[in-house]
Amino acid sequence: MRKWTYLVATLLMAGTTATFTGCIDTDEPEGIVDLRGAKSELIKAQAAVKLVEVEWQKAQVAYQELVNKSKELSNQYQEYDNQMHALDVKLKELEVERAQAATEQAKAEAEAKIAEANRDKAYWENKMAEEAEIFKAAMLNYQTQTAQAQEAYDNAMKLIEAGKLLLSDGEKAIIDKAQQRLYVASASLNQYYDALKTAQDEYYDVLVNPSLPTLASLQADLKLAQIAVEKAEILLDEKNNMLALAEDFDAAAWDDKILELKKKKSEYESEKSKADVEIATIKTSAEYKAAEAKVAEKTKARKAAKDAYDKAVADSTTQVGAQLDIKEYKSEPINDGLKELFSNSSDFTSLNGYTVSTGVFTYPAVNYTQTAYNADLEIEDEATRTSQASQTLRKVNAWIDALGKYSVDENGVEWNKLALVEKEKAAKTAKEKFDKAKAEWEISAKAVKGTATTVPTTELKKATDAYNTAYAAVVEAVKAYNSAWDAIYKAAYDAAVEKEKASVLEKTYRDNMIAALSPTSKDAWDALSAAEQTTSKLEAILDDTVKQAKAKADANATLAEWLKLEQTVADLASIGEAAGNKALADDKDKKVENAKKALDEAARNALTAVNKVDPAIDAYTDLAANPYGQKLANTVSVEDMTGKEAFYEAEKDKDGNPTGHMKALRSDISADEFTKLSATKLDRTTAEGALAFTSEKAFGSVISAEDRLVEVTEAMVRAYIEQNNNVVLADFGTLGAMMAANDDVQTCKDMIAAADLIKPLKTQMEGVLADLNAEIKANTALMDPFIAKADETRIALKAAKEEVKTAKEEQDALTAEAEANSKKYDELAQDYDGLIGVVQDQIDAINNNVVTGSDVTVESVLNYWKNEVATQEKAVEVAKQEVTVAEKSIELFNKGEYKEAYVIEQKKLALETAQDAYDAAKAIYDTALAQVKSVLETLSK
Fold first, then answer.
1. Backbone φ/ψ region at 700: left (φ over 0), alpha (ψ -120 to 50), beta
2. pLDDT digits (tens, 9 = 90+) for 766-776
3. pTM score
4. Are the C-beta atoms of 721 and 728 separated by less than 8 Å?
């Protein structure tokens, strides 16, 4: 039977096979019929492959759940191991305590602690057993899903074979190639599944029975591992010999090798027979018979221990589900003064189990099971516990808590005094709220009667003033920016332009004077160096004031004409801008930049402020309506008053050119505009709506009165409640809230005064709780003998299992060496038989004596033995690693470190290793499966 792993079930992925039928009977050429048949069969195969994929997906989900549970178990076992270790230490200490007990009472206390510790051990063992069963269920679910996927896979392969019958040779070759890859991948996956399932089973087994090996069993494991190394090395030597023969192929040498291999095989078979005779001889010996009898005896004892344990568990299960009873409790009526006090306290009017009218505390007789109560104890939040025992405890605790809020001693009195201060503060706040609500009701009532009360504009004025202040800051920021611009940019601009004009005038003046020089004077001027050719020197050489005056006048005239040129204007502007920009860049204080930032900040603040005016207008409108009963007299928008542009922009001259300055936009809200905005007028409909709202807020709506123009008094409220039990103070608006707060103050004062009466009542209820706990404890104690018996039989069963194991290991030890030899020689004989078959096939193939289906050459034989040697070398390494592991186990055992946790950890690591190997094989399988699916899809078109 084929084996698969968790995930093998995932084989392909699903769909359903469709069946097509026809109702028209026509004759078709034979080729067409064959083609249609082939397509039909391939379509069925394709659907079957999809079904495999679906089953494989289901198995994948089950596999992941199993892997997750494995990880979870690992974490839980660590906690279990810690708890069991602590309990073992505690039990040893308690055994010493019991042995040293000086009195019977001390001894009994120690035994009670020992019993409790054993119960705790049983709890943790049962908990891990439950978790292991959950793991087992997940494992079985995975294996079921895998089997279903295997079945779907087998069916798909059959359908593929059926579809191939009508395909062409070329199409068959394509599907055969894909199929072969899938067969190889499937076979490999099955092998890894085998190892994985073994690892899963072993992990589960060690979880439910983490027994430790004996030294003898570990030594036997070491012996087997050493034999495996010996056998692997023998095969490695033989394969190296075959490699040497293949490198220098000689037919005669190969024939001799065949004879040598057959001889060794015969020798190993002979050695196996000797070992089998030795085993049979040992099994007939008196020593072995005695060991067999001991195993049978211990097995019988184990069965008796298991029967006893099963009975104890069954008895415990019966008892834990048996009905347990709690008797009814009913108190005498409490003091009339307390009854009156409690009747005004919400702590008691809604207290479960307390009757206000009679002043009696009571809980009924109930029954429950230990199972339900134990389940409750696992729940941290006591309020969510559901057993009748837990609910009764919660009820009595609530009584004590309610009484505990009242002063029962000096400390309690002080706390109540502190509470009184807080309640008086609350009462003051409640009165202030009522006074405000009443004042608003009075305003609304006046409005309905035609008398207007001035609507306060305080908040509205705050909003408009805040905007005006922010807008004024924008105006000032614009001025500050313009000043900074003039001081830095404009000053540098103007200075640069004036300097350029002066330079042009100076040059023109000099040129005019040079033109007026006589030849002799011109020669004298030209003889001067550049440094000596100054304007004053030129004037001295000309030495004619009239000519000088004319040269200057002509220069000024030329300058005037030059300044009129468009190019001159552009050049001067460029010079000025360059100077201005340089001045901005050189300004270390960044006056213009900072002024711009300040202007932007002022604009943002103004925008924030103006955006608050509309909500302020809405709030003022609502205030005017309720409670003042008025509407706004005018419709005025914020934009009507301030404009809607940005708060500033760049200033431009008459020609549309930027001046460098900024200009403030929009405006503030004037006094006249505010007056128009805030003007209101009475409106009867609005006033009536306001009256309805303020009346309900102040007095509630319980006592009906048309338009509520008459005040509701406290006396009216008290009288109404007296006559109508279905209403409370909270139904009467802020008036009722004030009355309730005043009542709380008075109740607190009464509580302080009632301390001497409450104290004995609280003590009485604490006694009721103690009696109830004692009653529940006595019920729980009924389980003790059953728990003790179950624990006793559990320990005895565990010991009996260990004794069977020890006896079996002692019996197996008698034949261990002979059986190991028998196994070694048997496997060697089989291995040599395999070698003989391979070698003979290779010789026959080379000699063309056998049709092999493929060409066999000396080179291919050489490559075969190279691969065999490499594979066998790995096998030797793996076998040696197993020896190392076995030696390490013996070392740990001798040191006392071979604990249950170590055994479980090793099995967990083995499981993880098997999972990793399986996952790798599955990835290869998935690829091969996808290729088959792709081929089927192509051929089905």
1. left
2. 999 999 999 99
3. 0.43
4. yes
